[in-house]
Every structure is written in C-alpha cells, then in structure tokens.
Amino acid sequence: MLLGNATIHKNYNSQNLVDMWGDLIDWKKRREGENGFLIDQLRKHNVRRVFDAALGDGCDSIYLLQKGFDVTSNEIDKTFLAKALQNAKANNVQLKITSLDWRELDKELEIESFDAVIILGNSLTYLFTKETRLKALEQFRRILKKSGILIIDERNCQNILDNRDEILKGNFNYSGKYVYCGEKVHGRPIEISDDKVKFEYTDERTNKIAYLAMYPWKRDELKKLLQEAGFELIEQYSDYLPKENPDADFYQYVCVK
Ligand SMILES: C[S@@+](CC[C@H](N)C(=O)[O-])C[C@H]1O[C@@H](n2cnc3c(N)ncnc32)[C@H](O)[C@@H]1O
Questions:
Q1: Cβ(24) to ligand 1 under 6 A?
Q2: Does any ligand 1 atom lie closer than 6 A to the CB of residue 56?
Q3: 35-61 residue pLDDT tens
C-alpha cells in the first residue's frame, strides 16, 4: 500500500547491492545479535506506531509487523522498495509505504504522529553534509509524539579511521555479530578518508561485487548532532549493551523527545 502522493523516482543503490543485501545482513543473525533490544526498547516506551525511516529490504519492518506493531515503512529507492515488497509477500505481511526524502517528511507526515522512529543499518550516513543530516534528524523529531523515541545506530567509523592503513592493507577486523551479520557476503572498506568511506561487498559464492559509500561519523559526532536536533534524553548502547565501548562494532542511541 502506498500512502499519500508518493512517487518513487530515485534509484541510489545498485541492483547488485540490493540483491546481496539479505545475505549481507542475515535477517536471523541480526535478531540474534540484538538479543531482543529493538522490541524491548519499543515496549519499554509503550510504542504502538512506528516509522521505519529506512526500509531497505524490509528486515526490521517485517519483523515489527509480525510482532504486532503498526508500522509505516519509508523507502525512496525503487530497487530496495521492490525487494522489500517481494519479501513482505513471502512473509505474508502488508507494508504501509511512504517514499519520502528524510529531509522532507513534512510534505506528507503529520507532526507528532508516531510513537517511534527507527533508522537502522548506519543509514543516516547516506547524507554527506552536517546540514542535511541535522535536517533529517529534526524531521524525525517533528513526527514523534511527545515522549516518543528515535532509535538510530551508527557503525564505529572512528575505529575505521584510526586503523585506516591496516584496513587498506586487508586487515579489517569486524566481528560480524551485529547489524551486518552475513557469512557469505563480506564487506570491507576499500577507500577511507575523513569525509568518505567506501565499502566493497563481495558474494563469495558468485563473486558478485557491490559498493556503498558512507559518511564516517567521528567519535561522539552523532551524539552531539542528536542533541543539536533537540533530543535531550539520549541513551547510548555499544553493540546493544549500555554505555560507550570504544571497540564496539556499532553504537545504538535511544533518544526521547
Ligand atoms: C544502509 S540501507 C539500510 C536499510 C535497512 N534499514 C537495514 O538496516 O538493512 C539505507 C537505506 O536508506 C535509504 N535512504 C538513503 N538516503 C535517503 C534519504 N535521503 N531519504 C530517505 N531514505 C534514504 C536508502 O534507500 C536505503 O534503503
């Protein structure tokens, strides 16, 4: 179901990337890695209506629908959207879709209309300027009800920046236990600068290759930006455990409006 006047006109991600995505993240292992974190947070904050800002292939939206949440799923990339719709059908759930740029949610979405916004898989790093990332966070905050929560994650890119020489020599240490958990599709950074990290993903069975460039968050940068966007209460988790661990693979933030 497509909500509003959504027109899907953008195609940011290659077909190869989208085809590999399920094997890159491994839906089952993502859930094992988070060990109930997502559901526990949503329940703790009495969430019913969820806006999944970055649907991707549907991994999180489909899971939340199966758990009984009222989910609206946003995807502007038609290749990812097609994959998510196919996955929803295979899982016998119906997606409610919007197709909005994060910076323009107010074009269609009512102020204070969701109990939670989730943006997972290090997604905000698709935006390469501070101004655009802040705008997106302000838009997420706008659609949250009072006391609603934003759940956002980031890859520990500071570790990648700090170890760039070793990583570019081929020594990329990633546990593979969190968020991106696939065993047959491997990702590794092939270009690393302070402004951009480019990952290469390889399917070891087919040798298919895909690429994704992302903005590398520096230590505490996202936390400060969340504050700047107006979130006052921010809890940080490291690989789903409370507090900041400099060696974590991923950080999660639960931010209360
Ligand atoms: C890294 S994928 C993550 C997908 C999914 N959340 C996951 O964890 O597997 C990021 C998603 O964000 C979407 N996206 C990128 N830039 C966007 C923007 N400016 N507005 C809305 N969606 C965007 C992309 O199309 C892509 O599906």
A1: no
A2: yes
A3: 999 999 999 999 999 999 999 999 999
